[in-house]
Automatic annotation (TrEMBL):
Residue ranges of domain Glycosyltransferase 2-like in the record: 8-168
Name of the protein in question: Glycosyl transferase, family 2
GO CC aspect terms: plasma membrane
UniProt-listed GO biological process terms: lipopolysaccharide biosynthetic process
Domain of life: Bacteria
Membrane spanning residue stretches: 231-252, 264-289
UniProt xrefs under Gene3D superfamilies: Spore Coat Polysaccharide Biosynthesis Protein SpsA, Chain A (3.90.550.10)
GO terms of molecular function: undecaprenyl-phosphate 4-deoxy-4-formamido-L-arabinose transferase activity
Alphabetical list of InterPro entries matching this protein: Glyco_trans_2-like (IPR001173), Glycosyltransferase_2 (IPR050256), Nucleotide-diphossugar_trans (IPR029044)
Length: 312
């Protein structure tokens, strides 16, 4: 086994068989050029292609490579958390396996941590994503900053660096659903952000569908703030006041004009609008209740089937 790592690279993997060989071909020389002991921890998140066998081959070939094999698909953030628990480096860097964030940017993140920053976020420049992904990401960034009070420019970029102290605090958290960049921000004393390059995905497809992006936004809002509940309570108060004022208006109008049947469809439209607000509120409360239900069950956040390259 090599010396104790100074840098730990954490990479979640799900069906990335075509990207893994070029990833290690670019990542390994970058880490060697830094000149510090390092480890590369891959977490196979229940891949259905040959990703796991490729990772096992890497663990046999490179002494710095370790592989965590999940028993199923538990999600990107659970894969990162599992690697966090096994990492030992003073600096821990998360990186996606799709090569959209160039590994060549890693030395810049390391230098920022060595300057004294305990969390180094990144902002993707000249994004090579579709217009839909850019707009959705923009909405998530603005909404989350408003809801949580945090100040992060790009929540979707997973190329980030963390000091060991922040990682240790993250490891002490046991919630079943979380968003690691936001969680790290709550433990950070001196965060910073830098701009990094962004490339098109050369192989495979993005693992974030529209539904998963919506789920991610709900996790961010409900996992780090109660502002949505407060806003809904405020909306309920304003709606009640508006309803009372509207009822008074209709009563006065009836005395002045008399009984009339016009406006029935307008009333139906208003009724449906308020019903929509109520249903949305019930769903929002249900989201919080569902998170509480997941926590009280105390089920494992993930299940590790096997470890590769960690020694005995």
């Amino acid at each position: 086994m090599p010396d104790k790592p100074y840098i730990s690279i954490v990479i979640p993997v799900y069906n990335e068989e075509l990207n893994l060989p070029p990833l290690i071909d670019r990542l390994y020389p970058v880490m060697e050029q830094i000149g510090k002991p390092f480890e590369i921890i891959f977490t196979d998140d229940g891949s259905r292609d040959s990703s796991l066998s490729i990772l096992q081959g890497m663990a046999e070939k490179f002494p710095e490579v370790r592989v965590i094999e999940f028993n199923g698909n538990f999600g990107q953030h659970m894969a990162i958390l599992a690697a966090f628990e096994k990492s030992t480096g003073k600096i821990v860097i998360t990186l996606d396996a799709d090569l959209q964030n160039p590994p060549e940017e890693i030395p810049r993140l390391v230098r920022e941590v060595e300057k004294g920053h305990d969390v180094v976020g990144t902002i993707r420049q000249k994004r090579r994503d579709s217009m839909f992904r850019k707009v959705a990401s923009r909405i998530v960034n603005i909404t989350t900053n408003k809801m949580t009070g945090m100040h992060m420019s790009d929540y979707g970029c997973m190329l980030r660096a963390y000091h060991r102290n922040v990682v240790n605090n993250i490891n002490r958290c046991q919630e079943t659903t979380t968003f690691i960049p936001a969680l790290a921000q709550t433990f950070s004393a001196n965060p910073t952000e830098i701009e990094v390059a962004h490339a098109e995905r050369s192989e495979g497809e993005s693992k974030y569908s529209l539904y998963k992006l919506i789920r991610l936004n709900f996790d961010l809002m409900t996992g780090f703030s109660v502002v949505p509940l407060q806003l809904f309570a405020l909306m309920g108060i304003l709606t009640a006041l508006f309803s009372v004022a509207f009822a008074v208006f209709l009563l006065v109008r009836r005395f002045i004009i008399g009984a009339e049947v016009e406006g029935v469809f307008t009333l139906f439209a208003i009724l449906f609008f308020f019903i929509g607000i109520i249903i949305f509120g019930i769903g929002l409360v249900g989201e919080y209740v569902g998170r509480i239900y997941q926590e009280v069950r105390k089920r494992p956040r993930y299940v590790v089937r096997r470890l590769h390259g960690f020694g005995e």
